[in-house]
Design brief:
The protein is built from ten helices and 21 strands. By secondary structure, the protein is α+β, with helices and mostly antiparallel strands. A seven-stranded mixed beta sheet has the order 1-6-8-9-3-16-7, with helices on one face. It has a seven-stranded mixed beta sheet with strand order 13-12-15-17-20-11-21. Helices cover 27% and strands 23% of the residues. Helix 5 crosses helix 7, helix 7 packs across helix 8 and helix 7 packs across helix 10. Keywords: Transferase. InterPro entries: CAT-like_dom_sf (IPR023213), Plant_Fungal_Acyltransferase (IPR050317).
Length: 473
């Protein structure tokens, strides 16, 4: 049995009597959504969940609003439609299993009430965010779906943490920062603009008409999904191995500079080196999705609502047949790009440029998608996100789910691994463990799997076994 109701804030909101909240140009990811679900191994009180949700919405009133396009892109808060809450009896299939649970779920992904961006934009289903609660024996399934125009994963996780804190009676964290008066202008130097535009991935410059398109556009070739599971010990060993390579590179990097290479840098560099075996063209540029809140507080304050994303692009990478040299070269160039992405002036300028790439297509009723990009790859890593804090009173036992969203071989997802319930009922979290998901073209699975073993032994050695792989044909 399912019930559906609209939930409004339980009292005055942080935006007071505001009727409109203007969206920034970088919020106009109009055909994308953020969908996430949590599985709590306990039967939570649904009435308390609903009351805590209503209280949460006082800090997140935009989740209750309505999208308007005229005279400018904004969220209308008066009248406030509310956030749809779906309550279901019974858990989605597969949510009652113990043992490993992959973060990235196979299609259709987490079984939650989801935003359809096309119905949203047409006005058929105007909700900006939807919440799902499903109850079963000794477990509760919680889901949030929202248009990417409203929030990115950073803000959705903040929403979930606040909901969790209110449910268990904790002191809640501060609400997001709201500021719709920040105006960004393009740099006056044409060469600067050209440089910044050259750093953008094809995702921002490839569009399609929202009112008339062929779905095959998003599926350019048959693919197979492969998940790679790194234990915490494997991640540490890989990181240490890459740092040793950096220190030993003819003295060009001091030990201090080598130590700047992070676990994330090492994982990304290793994974791209492996993926090259399945590509027609080796990767010469890597784009990392970066939450750049706080790098320039005047432009994008820490915990700013909406989207705080930029794409940090490496300089062109020289391909080497030497595996160790290739991994190190990728790692160093990734770190260089991420340091550039933290520069306050760069943040201001690149957001001005990327904003136009989101805004102009939105004005023309066009959406964006990830096209094939030989030689380039996007890494969307959520490895360092604080998702375990939204535990609803059950720390160390909550598992999360994310959709398998991009059907091309040039988009890599990374997540911290879920905790595992053992056969005797105890819970175990492998700190630092990582789950990586990508697609490879059909027929190239063996190339990828062989390369993973080869690169691992060459870089890390044979003391630790090769990370586990799961292949989904």
């Amino acid at each position: 049995m399912n019930t559906r109701q609209l939930v409004l804030p339980s009292g005055p909101t942080v935006l007071g009597s505001r009727r409109l909240y203007r969206l920034s140009k970088n919020d106009l990811l109009i055909n994308f959504t953020v969908d996430i679900a949590y599985l709590v191994p306990a039967e939570l009180d649904v009435a308390r969940l609903r009351n805590a949700l209503a209280h949460t919405l006082t800090s997140f009133p935009l989740f209750c609003g309505k999208l308007v396009k005229e005279p400018e892109w904004a969220i209308c808060l008066a009248p406030m439609p509310g956030a749809p809450l779906t309550i279901r009896e019974g858990l989605p299939e597969g949510c009652d299993k113990s043992g490993d649970m992959e973060v990235v779920q196979l299609q259709p992904g987490p079984l939650i009430d989801r935003i359809d961006p096309f119905r949203l934009l047409s006005g058929e289903d105007p909700a900006l965010a939807k919440v799902t609660v499903a109850t079963g024996t000794n477990a509760t399934f919680l889901g949030v779906s929202c248009t990417h125009t409203l929030a990115d994963l950073h803000i959705v996780l903040k929403f979930l943490r606040t909901w969790s804190q209110l449910y268990i009676g904790m002191v809640i964290e501060p609400p997001p920062v709201y500021n719709d008066n920040i105006q960004l202008t393009l740099p006056s130097d044409p060469q600067r603009c050209a440089y910044l535009k050259s750093k953008l991935p094809s995702l921002l410059t490839t569009t399609f008409p929202l009112d008339n398109f062929d779905h095959s556009l998003f599926f350019p070739y048959p693919v197979t999904r492969i998940d790679v599971h790194f234990t915490g010990a494997q991640v540490s060993a890989l990181h240490e191995a890459v740092v040793r390579l950096a220190v030993g590179r003819n003295g060009s990097l001091t030990a201090i500079k080598a130590a700047m290479l992070t676990r994330q840098d090492a994982l990304s560099a290793f994974f791209v080196t492996v993926a090259n075996a399945s590509y027609d063209t080796p990767v010469t540029r890597i784009h990392n999705v970066v939450n750049c809140r706080g790098f320039n507080p005047d432009v994008l304050p820490k915990d700013m609502v909406g989207n705080g994303l930029q794409y940090a692009a490496t300089p062109p990478v020289v391909i080497s047949p030497n595996i160790r040299e290739m991994v190190l070269t990728y790692a160093v160039n990734i770190r260089v790009s991420l340091l550039e992405a933290r520069n306050p002036q760069y943040v201001k300028d690149v957001l001005a440029v990327s904003g136009e790439e989101w805004y102009q297509p939105a004005q023309a009723n066009r959406g964006h998608y990830v096209p094939p990009t030989p030689g380039e790859v996007i890494i969307n890593s959520n490895y360092r996100h604080d998702w375990p804090s939204a535990h609803f009173g059950h720390p160390g036992t909550v598992r999360w789910q994310h959709p398998d969203a991009v059907p091309t071989d040039n988009y890599i997802l990374m997540f911290p691994s879920n905790p595992v319930q053992t056969h005797n009922g105890e819970w175990y979290t492998d700190e630092g463990a990582c789950e990586v998901t990508l697609k490879v073209k059909k027929g190239r699975e063996d190339l990828f799997m062989a390369a993973l073993k080869t690169v691992w032994i060459e870089v890390v050695g044979e003391e630790l076994k090769t990370p586990r792989m799961d292949v989904y044909a």
